[in-house]
Amino acid sequence: MSTGNCHRDSETGEPTKKRLRQTSILDSFSFQRKISKRAEESQNLVEEAILSDLANEKEEDMSDNRGEEMSQQMRERAAGAAERRRSAKSPWSTPPHDDESHDDQPANQSPSSHHHRHHKSHDSPSSHSSSSRHGRHKPSPSGVVRSKYVDEDKPGTSRDTTSTSHHGRRDHKHKRRSRSDSSPEHGGPNSPIVIPDSPTTIPESPVLSEPPMDSPASPSNQSDTLVYEDSEPVFSNPDVLSQRDPSQPSWFGTPISALNRTPACSSSLPSLKPDSHHTVLFRPHLRPGDPPRPFPDKYRDVWDDAHVRMPCSDENLYPVQDQDGSKTVKSRWEVVQSALLGNIQNSLDLEEAILTYNSRYANRWDFRGLHSFFTEYLDDDEARSFFKVTLPAMVKLALRLPEIVTQSPPLLKKQMRHSITLSQLQVASLLANAFFCTFPRRNAYQRNSEYSSFPSINFNDLFKGGKHGVDRRRAEKLKTLVHYFKRVTIRMPSGTLTFRRQSFPKMPVWKTCKDPLSRLHVSAEGTIEEDGTGMLQVDFANKVIGGGVLGLGLVQEEIRFLICPEMILSRLFTETLEPDECLVIIGAEQYSCYKGYSDTYKWAGDYQDQTTRDTWGRRCTEVVAIDALKYRTYTEQCNPGMVKRELDKAFCGFHRSDVLPIKLSAIATGNWGCGAFGGDSRIKGLIQMMAAAVAKRDLVYFTFGNAQLAEDLYKMHEFAEANSLTVGDLWNVIQSYNRTCAKTSRKPAVELFNYIYQMYSDFQDSTDEEGAGQNWEEGAEGKGHGSQIKGWGSDEEGADGRTERKESLDYKAMTP
Questions:
Q1: Contact at 8 Å (CB) between 257 and 698?
Q2: What is the 3-state secondary structure (H, E, C) of 87-155?
Q3: Which helix (H) or strand (E) holds 502?
Q4: What pLDDT was estimated at residue 748?
């Protein structure tokens, strides 16, 4: 037994109990599998019985000559429901709410585009699937969708419309006929729609939708959505169906092909060499196909608070207990080597090895998720391949650290303007050490600890389990990261990456800025990482870089870090971002496809990144991490201090003082700081337009399925151009709005965009004047689909004279 193992056993004193625990864990996993399988079979039998009851009842109803009467009532009720939706401005779509919904896919979306979707709309039609909250839809052999509806108020309980298998058919039928207005015969709001002329059709159960993230949740915003297996809403009102006309434009503004992308727009890079503001960890003489040689040739140890404390440092000491009971201090790296080179055949052996050099956390770290991942989540062949092939290669990659990374990277601390350039081989070796939790002093996060203001880097949080063993989020993360290690251990990439922390102590005086808005392309389709190739891509970041990528977080930033795992290394040396700082990552390669978002995220296979490289060996992929503020109300976003902070942060990410504006690529962004952070997508869109204008860059904005938002942003941009509004003018009108309309804690009656229109032109009246509409359309000529917009046709004036916005049919912002 190794010295480290002796230390473990002497410290716990229970080697026999440990083996018994391992056996009991494996037995428990086997038992849980059997129970889950039996429960699933029982559930299927119950559902078949329920559907059979419903089919028989339907046939009886039809045989009683009441089918046509019911069909007519259902059509009238559907028309009424559609009218209520229009009056309530409902989005008419249903977000996923369970772990299974990631398996569905929209009929009009290719698998590849879906796999790469970085900012998956939580309200996408592809998200409808089986759910313990919203019901389960299955096609019958005849192609008719049958459903089990689950009570919104009591998850896990069935409503009477599908009610339960222990009621006989007569009892169930009697219940339906005895109910009041909520029964199918009385056309209640929760009753199913019966499709006419289909006597064997099982009634569809309605699914409650939720309001979009950028609108307040209220009863008026909630409505029913009637969904078939293809996730298309079913309405009897032809006016509603016409609103989903696919001929409507999906993008507005300047064609995306006319905007700058790297490397086509870029100047030649200077020679790669280290200086006082740039650390290069390899020799800059690049040879195609071969990883760069590290610099210096031999490991040079640095152990201080300005550099990463390396696992292989001679100063990294660890107390161990010898076989004779005496305690000595030993090189921790030697303990790491001894533990990882042991016989690791399963996840229990891996846990033992990791705790050998992290013994103080033996009773605090949770490895149940790691065990469940290999025993329940992966099949036997995949698990066996990992421990026989991938893991030994990862161990070798990690233990070669002193010969691959021969100097300690500097820490990118607050207010530093510094860059670090590494090879992809060096990144992989450092990440392999993170997987095995070898980085010293990175496990304590008390307020006075050395790295309390840095993100975590060791992977121990990913190994935690859920309430029932498997945590599906962490399991899918592990699957994505294991794929990365499998790729790089089979064939190591030969490129490089740069991490740059930048700050601007002196920000623009926004109220005096005379810059007009730059060019805009806004699209309801596409994603930042796929359609923004060659542009400056915005990471909707947490101020702790990477957010919850090594924990439970699984939204825009975490997903990007998972499919491009080299970005995770930024957590090793990047301190928490200040309000005037950002982090730029150049050259990160994408290794995985994915589908879903948040709870529905799922690894979807390998991805071969074909992005070209620059002369430094980096992929031409530039990502900027900027963190937004978190808001509780709509109105506080217009507070002068809040607006200035967001403008400063966006400008810090967009501005490049050392590059001519004509050589700058466009910015690819979206609903930054919306969704979980409570930001309003229209306000955030305008703020990013203003920051891009002062940074002298064009803007590409992806609304992730929200066609109405795309049109609204385009109209505001065109209105600002038509009225020659500068960034300073927009700043001043936002402050005026804050003083006059944003004094209530709730959402004001007049939103910011409508206020701007009223302030500058009494817009509704001006478009009715002779020639005004004509001039407006002429101004939109040649700008994508702008000329197709008829005045402001998407807005309707209500009875009280206010302008009402029609919400998107299938949008709910889900960005942090």
A1: no
A2: HHCCCCCCCCCCCCHHHCCCCCCCHHHHHCCCCCCCCCHHHCCCECCCEEEEECCCCCEEEECECCCCC
A3: strand 496-503
A4: 81
Residue 37 has what pLDDT? 58
539 catalytic? Reply is yes
> Which two structure tokens, joined as six digits, stand for 512?
């005096």
Residue 314 CB coordination number (10 Å): 11
Sequence-distant (6+) residues with CB within 8 A of 626 are: 538, 539, 540, 541, 582, 649, 650, 652, 653, 672
Q: Read out DSSP for 122-140?
A: TT-GGG---BTTTBEEEE-
pLDDT confidence of residue 24? 58
CB 47: neighbour CB atoms within 10 A? 18
Residue of 557, 566, 575, 807 with catalytic role: 557
- Active-site residue identified among 224, 558, 566, 698: 558
Q: How many CB atoms lie within 10 A of CB 212?
A: 30
**712 catalytic per annotation:** no
- 286 touches 724 (CB < 8 A): no
Q: What is the dihedral of CA 50, 54, 59, 64, to 10 degrees?
A: 130
Chain CA centroid to CA 411, Å:
27
In sequence order, which residues have a C-beta less than 8 Å from that of residue 163 and are 6 or more positions away?
Answer: 50, 172, 175
Q: How far apart are CA 416 and CA 71, in angstroms?
A: 70
CA dihedral 556, 558, 562, 563 (to 10 degrees): 10
Please state, as a whole number, how many other Cβ atoms lie within 10 Å of the Cβ of residue 599: 17
* pLDDT reported for residue 447: 83
Supply the pLDDT for residue 497. 97
What's the confidence (pLDDT) of residue 164? 38
Give me the amino acid identity at 37: K
What pLDDT, on the 0 to 100 scale, is given for residue 574? 98
Integer Cα distance of 192 and 81 in angstroms = 12
Q: Is 609 a catalytic residue?
A: no
DSSP code for 376: I
Please give the pLDDT value at position 285: 82
Give burial (CB, 10 Å; 0-12/13-18/19+) of 253: buried
Q: What are phi and psi of 190, to 5 degrees?
A: -100, 10
Question: What residues does 623 pair with on adjacent strands?
Answer: 537, 585
Question: CA torsion sign, 304 to 310 to 311 to 312?
Answer: negative
Q: How far apart are CA 54 and CA 188, in angstroms?
A: 18
Q: What CA dihedral angle connects 548, 550, 556 and 559, to 10 degrees?
A: -170
- Per-run averaged pLDDT (10 residues), the chain, 816 residues: 42 49 57 59 62 57 50 57 51 38 40 43 39 37 36 39 38 37 37 35 32 37 32 31 54 96 93 95 86 94 96 93 81 96 96 95 94 92 96 97 97 96 98 98 88 96 85 94 97 95 92 97 94 96 96 94 98 97 97 93 95 95 96 90 96 94 96 90 97 98 93 96 95 92 74 91 50 35 33 33 33 32
Secondary structure letter of residue 226 according to DSSP: -
The string of DSSP codes covering 186-213 is: GT-TTPPBPPTT-TTPPPBPPEE----T
pLDDT of residue 50: 63
Lookup: tokens for 153: 């108020």
Q: Name the nearest CA neighbour of 92 among 182, 195, 222.
A: 222
Report how far residue 176's alpha carbon sits from residue 483's, in angstroms, rounded to the nearest whole number: 52
**CA atoms of 422 and 253, how far apart (whole Å):** 39
DSSP symbol at 159: -
